[in-house]
Amino acid sequence: MSVKCVLSSLIILSVFVLFGKAANAQTAKYPNFSESQLIFQGDAGKWDADKVHTFSVVEANKDGYKYWAYYGLSYYGGDPANRKCGLARSNDLVHWEKYDGNPLISNDCRWPTVIFSNSVFYMFYAEYNADNDSRIVMVTSKDGIHFGDKTEVVEREKGKQNQNPFAFYNEKDKTFYLTYYCGDERNKDTSKTWWSIKIKKSKNIEKLAAVKPKTLMKSHDLVAAPSIVYFNNKYYLLVESRIIGRWDDKWVTLGYESNKPDGKYKLLANDPPVLHDGDACAFEYVFNNQLYVFYSHCLNLDKFNWELRMVKSVK
Questions:
Q1: Rounded CA gap, 113 and 71, in Å?
Q2: Which among 285, 225, 235 is positioned nearest to 260, based on CA atoms?
Q3: Which domain holds residue 10?
Q4: Which of 60, 100, 231, 267 has its CA 20 to 30 A from that of 16?
């Protein structure tokens, strides 16, 4: 078989795995959720104006606030001083107050995701070099405001991206998971471009760096920004996607399910996708036995302007 035929077969297989075929379509769907509501925006003329992009929430019960959220901006590449992390806090997951001392991290911090464990805040985020190759690092904090002790968790690879981290603690197996996007979407030969979702796990969050990652999925089409949650006795994986000529050329969020966090995920039968109106970067959490999805809604694709929205599960 020729190289061209082999490549074509791989691409067809990738599309089959990610987007399904009618003969093998899944009947399961993502849990029903409420109408979307705007919960968070950047301030006009300030460092986060129109660029609020990710929202990582922990239940900290600290300093008069039950929930602490760490948010990142949409800036990608260019000046690292544009990539910052801010803090917002809430008692109801709807109304949020920004921390007066924002930004907490003011240089080369994209896609912050946080776990609060044993009174320590563990933050993971992506850093970039001049060639835009990225790696994932971890910093820690006792007060949730001042972070330090940076360590590399996913190393930088020349010509590739290691980014979009999402940290998840699974109560069922008492294990920490870090899932992220790895790929070479900048390859000039688009026939060789691949996107993949990888995952690491460890009983000790501080030992994730030493763990070899497992690949959950790989595609010739865009899949990135993974998040995982356990709800209704299932593990749900959300990933963002955008394919020109599909879904009105908008960003969408696809849903998958599995019986374990690092298991085989099956595409859910949501059509249109779980979120489908320029919606990406979803972070999933369960609070008070209810599923919450915080995600970024595109305001202007040319300017890459976004705002934060939220949906929650309903019966």
A1: 8
A2: 235
A3: 3-312
A4: 231
Strand partners, 18: none
The CATH number that applies at residue 123 is: 2.115.10.20
- Give the separation between CA 212 and CA 287, rounded to whole angstroms: 30
- pLDDT over 80 at 233, yes or no: yes
CB 66 within 8 A of CB 57: no
Q: How confident is the model at residue 1 (pLDDT cuts 50, 70, 90)?
A: very low
Mention every residue, 6+ apart, whose C-beta is less than 8 A from residue 236.
Answer: 30, 31, 228, 229, 230, 255, 256, 257, 284
Mention every residue, 6+ apart, whose C-beta is less than 8 A from residue 241.
18, 221, 222, 223, 224, 251, 252, 253, 254, 273
The pTM of this model reads 0.91
Q: pLDDT tens, 25-84?
A: 568 999 999 999 999 999 999 999 999 999 999 999 999 999 999 999 999 888 999 999
- C-beta neighbour count of 250 within 10 angstroms: 18
Neighbours of 4 (CB within 10 A): 9
Question: Higher pLDDT residue, 8 or 29?
Answer: 29
- Measured from the Cβ of residue 225, the count of other Cβ atoms closer than 10 Å reads 28
